[in-house]
Amino acid sequence: MDAVLFFTIAALLISIIFAMMIRRSRNRNPNLPPGSLGWPLVGESLEFLRASVDGEPEEFVRRRVKKYDSQVFKSSLMGENMVFMCGAAGNKFLFSNESKSVTVWWPGSVRKLLGPCLATSTGDEARLMRRMIALFLTPDAFSKLYIKTMEMVCQQHIKTHWEGKDEVKVFPTIKRYTFGLACRLFMGLEDEEHIGKLASMFNIFLAGLISFPINLPGTRFWRGKLATHAIKDEVLKIVRARRSSSEQKLDLLNHLITTPDERGKYMTDSVIVNNILMLLFAGHDTTSVTITMTIKCLAERPDIYEKVSKEHEGIGESVQWEDLQKMKYTWSVACEALRLTPPVIGGFREALTDISYGGYHIPKGWKLFWSASNTHMDSSLYPSSADFDPSRFEESLGPAPFTFVPFGGGPRMCTGKEFARLELLLLMHNLVKRYRWKLVCPDEKISCDPMPTPLQGLPVRLQPHN
After folding, report:
1. CATH superfamily, with its number, for domain 31-464
2. Residue 117 annotated as binding?
3. How far apart are the first and last CA of the chain?
4. In angstroms, rounded to a whole number, what is the distance separating the alpha carbons of residues 318 and 316?
5. The pTM is what?
C-alpha cells in the first residue's frame, strides 16, 4: 500500500513539474504557433494514433488547422514538442532548408532499430551514403542491368501466387512480391524458404518501428528489437559469405562491398547491414501499399481499368525497358493512388536554430512535421480532392511543386523512387494482361499502423481473360 501511495505521489509531482515547464516555455516564447501540447509526457500522441488507426491520419492535422485557423500549429508527440508545417509552403520550407536550419529526425524507436544508415544519418555521412546507394538505383542501371531480373521475378510471382486462383488476398500477396524482389536485387537471395523466414521477422520489425521505445518483454518495441537483431544477424552472414566468395552478382550487396566512396573508403559490414535493412523497408512495405491501393482503385473504377488495359494492349508478355516508358497512364493511376493513400503520411525534422516561419517563433531543438496526407487532400491544391482522378498527373498538367510529396523532397527525397515505379508497372502489366478483378469486401476499412493496411488483406475475385 505504501509503495502504491509513493508511486502515485511521484507521478503527480512529475506531472506538476512538466506542467510548470510547459507554462514557463510558453511565457518565454509568447509568439509560438497556436496549438496545444496536450497532456504531460503523452502530449497529443493518442489523438494522432487514433486518427491513423481510423484510416484518416490527415484528420488530426485538418481539425487543428481549422481550429487554430493556421497552417502552422504546435503539438506534442512521443514526448517531443512539435510544430506541424502544413501545405506546399511548409513542405517547401523544410525540403529547401535541409542541413541549414533543419535536419532529419526520427522517433527513438526508429533510430534504435535501424541504427546508423542513410535514413538516420546527417551531413557528409548521409551525402556519401546517398551517392553510393543512388549509383545502384539509377534509371540507366535498371535499363541495362536489372530489368530482366525484375521481369523474371514478376513472372514467377504471377505463376506461383495468382494463376489458377479464384480469389487472392492482395496485400499479403503483393508483400511477397515486393519483399522477394527486394531480397533478389539487394542481396541476391533466391531461396523462397530463406526469403519467407526473413519476411516473417521483418513484419515483427515493422510493427515495432513506430512505437513507444519501451524495452519490456511483450511490448511491440521489445519484439521489434528481437526481430531486428535476428534480421541483422542473418544479413551479416550473407555479407560475410559474399566477402569470402569470388562470385560476382549484379546486386546492391556486391555494389556496396566493392565500391569505395569519394574518399576511397569502403562501407563497414555493420553499415552495409543497416542500409540493406533500411532499403528492405523502403523498397518493400511502402511499394506494397501503393500497388495494393492501385489494384483497389482499378476494381472500383472499371472505366479507368479499361484505359489502363488499352495502354497495355500493344505490349507483349515480355516487357522491355522501352515498353515501361510507354506506360504513362498506368503511372498516372498509381500517382493518384499515392496521392489519396500515401504509404508514409509525413516526415520529421528538427530545428537546428531558432526559426521564424509564418510569423511565429519555433525554438531550436523543437521537432517539425510535414504532412503528405494533409497536403494531398487540400482542396485548394486538388479540386474535389476525395475523388479518384488520374488526369491530375497527365504530362500537360501535373501537380505544382511541393504539392505531391509521397517520396518526400529536397536532398532527402526517396532514392528508390525509380525502383518503386518499375516494380509497380511490371506487376500491373502482367495483371491487366491476364485478369479483371472484383473486390470481395467493397467497404473494407483501411487502417494506418504505421502504414495504410486493408484490415482483411483486400481479397479480390479474379476473372481471367479468355
Report:
1. Cytochrome P450 (1.10.630.10)
2. no
3. 75
4. 5
5. 0.90
